[in-house]
Amino acid sequence: MTIDVGRRSLLRNMAWLATASLILPGCGKKEEGGADSSSSAGAPAVLKKVGDGVVEFKYPDNPTFDLVYLAEALGYFDGTRTRPRYVGKVAAPQIIPLIGTGEIDFGTRMVPLVISAIASGLDIKVVSAGGKTLEEAPHMKYFVRKDAGIRTPKDLEGKTVGFNSFGACAEFVTKKYLRAQGVDVNKINWLVVPDNQAEQTLATGNTDLAIIHPPFSGGAESNTELTKLWSDYDLDGGLGGMAPYSVYGKFAREHPEATRDLVGAIAKAANWVNANPDEARKITAQRIGMELRLVERFAYVENLVVTEAPIQYYIDILESEGKLPPGKIRVKDVYTNEFNPFA
Question: According to the model, what pLDDT value does residue 65 have?
Fold first, then answer.
């Protein structure tokens, strides 16, 4: 049963997600593929159907490597009656809470955030797998300054780690690994820093280690003052690297065909990216105004079909961290492949 949770109540119940987050206005620019990126002065506009039966889904207009933007640029929404409606930039920690209350209809963030949202009563479901970790294309990388004297996990005690949000992969994958290496994670200062600011924050000494996701990890890779310690592939073999797409439950129930169109379009885009990683980097570089050589590639789960092992991985972590009562959430509560035409 869907539980109607107001945004104010949501932010109380999920304060650890909402800290240091804000919704920024959109830039109103014309996107690659012809979509008009518009923003509102306050909360995103509520839009469902426009003209001639077209269904629009509300989606963040964020500067990142993203399958919705690529699917639109590649024409994969053509021939459907479904289109993205960009509603402005949305800070990463706010994406899942806003999907859960319907202020945006669709978005991508890591599995533990979705699990926690479902456990709190929000109306949200994973409907598509997303990125995956490969040794040559990890989901996130760990950087330090070359002169920092940090070489082993134990060296991080007493230091400041910058990462993009609490409650997601950067926190839980890292803490799980560090504990296994005998590190007291309570002796580390955890600081939320957006990915696009993480390299500069590290280089200026405001953090001692930065956990950065593509495409922005490419800048840190090329920075001669920094060195990479690990990737998430080194930490868990990529098990925690699935970055799925989730939908507002009410939207999926009211617009099942649009949801199928959407999932099908990004699945086609994901397969295209896997086959054409350099071309995908070019589109992303143009879209976000980033130098091409610094844009790192993404790898995606084939056909974006969701598998259960990455979800169970995070259920186990959340239970062991005391963030989720044992048995409260099952894998089947978190996802469905019913909207994926390739499943």
Answer: 87
- Domains of the chain with bracketed CATH: 7-130+243-294 (3.40.190.10), 141-236 (3.40.190.10)
The C-alpha atoms of residue 134 and residue 150 are separated, in whole angstroms, by: 25
Give the Cα separation of 281 and 288 in Å (integer). Answer: 11
Residue 52: pLDDT band (50, 70, 90) is low
Cβ distance 169 to 195 under 8 Å?
A: no
Q: Are 69 and 245 in contact (CB under 8 A)?
A: no
Q: Band the pLDDT of 15: cuts 50, 70, 90.
A: very low
Amino acid at position 226, single letter? L
Residues 100, 10 contacting (CB under 8 angstroms) = yes
pTM for the structure as a whole: 0.79
CA gap 89, 94 in Å, rounded: 10
The predicted structure's pLDDT at residue 63: 81
Long-range contacts of 252-257, Cβ-Cβ distance < 8 Å, separation of 24 or more? 252/125, 252/127, 252/339, 254/48, 255/48, 255/55, 255/57, 256/339, 257/55, 257/81, 257/82
* Residue that the structure tokens 């104010």 belong to: 8
Question: Distance (Å, rounded) from C-alpha 240 to C-alpha 232?
Answer: 8
Strand duo 54-59 + 82-86: pairing: parallel
Using DSSP, state whether 77 is helix, strand or coil.
coil
C-beta of residue 59 within 8 angstroms of C-beta of residue 32: no
Choose among 112, 108, 132, 92: nearest CA to 175. 112
Q: Determine whether 79 is exposed, middle or buried from the number of CB atoms within 10 Å of its CB (0-12, 13-18, 19+).
A: exposed
Pairing of strands 82-86, 209-212: unpaired
169 vs 14: which has the higher pLDDT: 169
Which one, of 313, 303, 340, lies nearest residue 110 by Cα?
A: 313
